[in-house]
Amino acid sequence: MMQIMGMRQKDTRSIGELTAPELEGETVKAEGAVHRVRNMGEIVFVVLRQAEGLLQTVFDKKSFEEAGDVREGCTIRVEGVLRREERAPHGVEIAVTAAEILSVSAGPLPLPIDKWKMGASLEARLDHRAVSLRNVRERARFRIQEGIVRGFRDFLYSQGFTEIHTPKIGAKGAEGGANIFKLSYFHRPAVLAQSPQFYKQMMVGVFDRVFETGPVFRAEKHNTRRHLNEYTSLDFEMGYIDGMEDVMGMETEMLRYVMGLLKREYGREVELLGIGVPEIASIPALRFDEAKRLVSETYGRPARAPFDLEPEEESLIGTYAKEKFGSDFVFITHYPSKKRPFYAMDDPEDSRYTLSFDLLYKGLEITTGGQRIHDYRMLMDKMEARGMTDEGMEGYLEAFRCGMPPHGGLGIGLERLTVQLLGEDNVREGCLFPRDMGRLTP
Fold first, then answer.
1. Which long-range contacts (CB under 8 A, 24 or more apart) does 387-391 make?
2. Which of 19, 217, 247, 293 is most buried by its number of CB atoms within 10 A?
3. Closest CA to 377 of 362, 357, 397
4. Interhelix angle for 394-401 vs 376-385, to 10°?
5. Considering only CA atoms, which of 81, 152, 121 is closest in space to residue 412?
6. pLDDT tens, 148-204?
7. What distance in Å separates the CA atoms of residue 80 and residue 67, rounded to the nearest whole number?
8. CB-based contact 37:88 (threshold 8 Å)
9. Measured between alpha carbons, how far is 344 from 369 in angstroms, rounded to an integer?
10. How many other C-beta atoms lie within 10 A of the C-beta of residue 68?
């Protein structure tokens, strides 16, 4: 009988270890996927791909032939002498004395992943996603995305938030309306969650401050560069607030922390992708009606949609915020009640508007949030005014009937935030395996 005591120590080295000065001249072992083979005749350069990046190895003609069919897509283990080479990635290379093929590639790769820019269309890259992501620049995007989620989590933990995990199958959509995916749940009607909204509000009554990162589903029949039918939402909800400004302030601090983390811990990817990580000292805020007026007056664009912002208006507001305030971010507050869900707190000074907001980043909405109604009677009155029933919401409403603190929160579209930071113009660039109207695979 075996006893497993923990992790086994490996004698192979990572790139981070191989760059240590004291290893120069030592015999080392390393593993990786063959990223590129450049056969110069007497010597052969084989570049390996590891999680940290690219590692150059050098074979002489004899050792390369003895290794077998080393080609792109194979994974191999090499042994050799580590030496300095400033022209190589990370400034080191291994002069190989022995190599072992761990797995072979069954055929040519469908995309030139060894190129700095593959030159393939987005559709081709998505069709062959498991391969296209092996390109170092493509995968670096999702290291940046990891940093965003890591920063979101770390910051909220530091502020006393509890991480929760809510169901993605439910009886009724949190936002109402028809844009929900319906399914049969053991012969009962059910829906895929549009949002964790109800659950995170309920949990404010338990933990005071909660957050979640998870998928949400929107059955919206549009095929644009801005929308996905499944995306990842970064949500938090916080109790005992004095107004929506507390939520906006929390997001501002969180984003400042995230951007600092990217600079500190993801500098390699930031440099590789040429990202300009924004400095966030403060974020300006404009009322919805004021923002529409400013866009109309400044850029000569007639305001058409009275209760919402059109994509072109969002873009122009982003331009205005950059020109006027020097900020890539701008909060738009006090959205009309007609365009906000029933749980949004109405402005006590003018019930046509709500104490809610969106955050625009470079002219694209990445966040929706605000203060919620916490009084049970007020919530029921608003539902009644909208002709709503409590069907499917009994558990949600019970939390309010039993008392809830003043609270508010938000949801951030992870993919949108990612692509805006990367400077891309299609939200699919920020999703590992996008789901839209036409794509269910891979």
1. 388/176, 388/342, 391/172
2. 247
3. 397
4. 140
5. 152
6. 999 999 999 999 999 999 999 988 655 555 689 999 999 999 999 999 999 999 999
7. 13
8. no
9. 9
10. 13
